[in-house]
Amino acid sequence: MLFETSQSVVFRPAFPEDAPVLAQLHKSAFARDWSSGEFDRLLRGPGAFAVLARRKPVFGAWRDVGFVLVREAGDEAEILTIAVDPANRNRGIGRRLLDEAGRRLYADRVASLFLEVDEANAGAVSLYRKFGFHVVGNRKGYYPEAGEGGDSGMALVMRCELR
Question: Which residue among 78, 100, 128, 143 is the active-site one?
Answer without folding.
Answer: 128
